[in-house]
Design brief:
By secondary structure, the protein is an alpha+beta fold. 29% of the residues lie in helices and 38% in strands. It has one domain: 2-Layer Sandwich (Alpha-Beta Plaits), CATH 3.30.70. It is globular. The mean pLDDT is 92.
């Protein structure tokens, strides 16, 4: 399995709670697809959120994001350093 970083540009007016709720929706979708959500971070000030997921393919991660409130800008494979 590989680790993928989902990059999200927040919609105007989104709060940290909105992002948290969106991540919970994503986690459910990812788990149902057999993926492993690893965590997420957000900067409301900068307007971005980032999530990490363990999966076999980028497409699986992209598909699991279909119902998330924060639009998915990009998904990239990353290498954890810790």
């Amino acid at each position: 399995m590989s680790v993928f970083l989902g990059i999200h540009k927040l919609k105007e007016g989104m709060s940290e709670d909105d992002v948290r709720n969106g991540y919970e929706t994503y986690k459910k979708s990812a788990l149902e697809a057999g993926l492993k959500p690893l965590g997420a971070v957000v900067s409301v000030e900068k307007g971005f959120a980032y999530c990490q997921t363990e999966a076999e393919t980028l497409e699986q991660v992209r598909d699991a994001h279909a119902n998330v409130a924060a639009p998915l800008e990009e998904v990239v494979m990353v290498t954890p350093l810790v």
